[in-house]
Specification:
Blueprint lengths: L6 E6 L4 H4 L7 E5 L2 E2 L3 H7 L4 E8 L2 E8 L8 E3 L38 H7 L2 E2 L6 H9 L5 E4 L5 H8 L7 H10 L4 E7 L7 H11 L5 E8 L15 H22 L4 E3 L1 H7 L23 H7 L1 H8 L6 E7 L3 H15 L2 E7 L16 H8 L7 E5 L16 H8 L3 E6 L4 E5 L4
Parallel strand pairs: 7-8, 8-9, 9-10, 10-11, 12-13, 12-14, 14-15
Antiparallel strand pairs: 1-2, 1-6, 2-3, 2-4, 4-5, 15-16
Length: about 425
């Protein structure tokens, strides 16, 4: 029996195909061209036809409406949720370095969900492990050509990957990637490295195996393991000297691969450069992959440096003789250099406050994992300028909320200072007031 999953429509764009068909917010979409819908991917796939038939429910009664669609024309539908079947694919691994397992208590509920859903990988670039796919999933990926996908590889040697993830299926990663390549799926990969576990010669093997699948495997980003105060006691963070060694190893691979492939292929995250005290590469060295790789910690510092002149001009118009810029411990040295430049060029004061992460532990140094609780505790100990400037990555939750479910407006009300948010868009940095965020 065919199972239909009701999809509540929350918005219909004016002059769109859906609007022309007479669909409204509050309607429930039951089927499209006679096909049941599991998620928004099915909607996109079945709506690619020039003639569309929507089966909907309105005020308790079902009806069918029709419309024609020209190539490239917007369908114009937004839904209450992207996964109509309500079945987020849970992770079946027990990774030694799983960040969700190390999550601080008292944060937003969804942060504790261990998803490993290929649909969210296609829709949002979430990294998945490929360990929980059955044959129907593989068939759907092929039929609907769900490309690109983002895959957490970590290691290609079966014993090493199984040892990290504690799932026998983890050892099939090379076969799984080859299967995606045969389907002409573009794959972006990452290797989260843990000292003594999957670095050194293991990393060499991983890069070599992934290179053999180029261009289907488009790139591999190399990221140091992130450990909170609740981490697995068998794990430890990298020392600065070890970070410098890993960076040298990956950059050596990048040089050789650029000569052979025409692209760097291996991209270390910004943290390696900052920990080792090595300047980040020029924009051209990222081979057009920015800002797509920024979510994985790659290239944000370069985008910030290249966009500094325009950003400095926007910051100069915020008002008040002195500003306070808030960031994490890792980025603070870079920001302090720019604060000095800002004062020299504008005559305005700029104080950089680096916030220690007490919620997760002080080994977590990136700004995106700070809580408002830690930010306010630090600000209470410091003299604050006329305005506060904070990074956009703090506010990536629903409706611009932080990990502890607060907003920039909450910070504004607590400090009595206007708050501005610095955000990186596709082509430039912008400064936005908190009330409009």
């Amino acid at each position: 029996m065919t199972e239909y999953y009701p999809a509540l429509i929350t918005d219909v764009a004016p002059r769109s195909v859906a609007a022309r068909a007479g669909l409204r917010a509050g309607d429930v979409l039951l089927a499209l061209n006679g096909m049941p819908l599991r998620d928004v991917i099915d909607v996109q796939f079945y709506a690619a036809e020039p003639e569309l038939e929507f089966r909907i429910e309105r005020a308790g009664r079902q009806k069918t409406v029709r419309a024609n669609r020209r190539y490239g024309q917007s369908l114009g539908l937004a839904f209450e949720t992207e996964l109509f079947d309500g079945k987020i694919r849970a992770c079946r691994n027990n990774c030694d370095f799983c960040f969700v397992s190390q999550m601080a208590p008292g944060l937003r509920g969804p942060l504790y969900v261990k998803d490993d859903d290929y649909r969210l990988s296609f829709l949002h670039g979430n990294y998945i492990t490929l360990t929980n796919l059955d044959e129907s999933d593989w068939a759907r990926i092929a039929e609907q050509h769900l490309s690109p996908l983002y895959v957490s590889v970590h290691a290609t040697e079966p014993d090493v990957r199984v040892g990290l993830m504690h799932n026998p299926r983890a050892g099939q990663i090379v076969e799984h990637l080859a299967r995606l390549a045969e389907m002409d799926i573009e794959i972006h990969t990452q290797a989260v490295l843990a000292p003594g576990r999957n670095d050194g010669a293991h990393l060499d093997r991983t890069i070599a195996d992934l290179t053999s699948l180029y261009p289907a495997v488009a790139d591999v980003t190399v990221v140091p393991v992130g450990l909170t105060r609740w981490h697995n006691p068998a794990m430890r963070p990298y020392t600065d000297a070890e970070a410098a060694a890993v960076l040298a190893q990956t950059l050596d691979w990048q040089t050789r691969l650029r000569a052979g492939l025409g692209v760097g292929f291996v991209y270390p995250s910004d943290e390696w450069f900052l920990r080792a005290g090595v300047p980040v590469p020029a924009l051209a060295d990222y081979d057009g992959l920015l800002p797509a790789l920024v979510e994985n910690g790659v290239g944000m510092v370069r985008l910030f440096l290249d966009g500094w002149d325009a950003l400095q001009a926007e910051l100069a118009h915020l008002g008040g003789p002195r500003q306070t810029w808030v960031t994490g411990m890792l980025f603070a040295p870079v920001l302090r250099e720019k604060a000095a430049t800002f004062t020299l060029h504008t005559g305005l004061g700029a104080d950089v406050i680096a916030v220690p992460n007490h919620a997760f532990g002080e080994t977590v140094t990136v700004a995106g994992l700070l809580t408002v609780g830690d930010i306010l505790a630090t600000l209470r100990e410091r003299e604050i300028g006329d305005v506060l400037v904070l990074p956009d990555e703090l506010f990536r939750g629903p409706d611009g909320c932080t990990l502890d479910d607060k907003s920039a407006v909450d910070i504004q009300q607590a400090t009595g200072r206007p708050v501005f948010i610095v955000a990186q868009t596709e082509d430039r940095w912008q400064v936005r007031p908190a009330v409009l965020y």
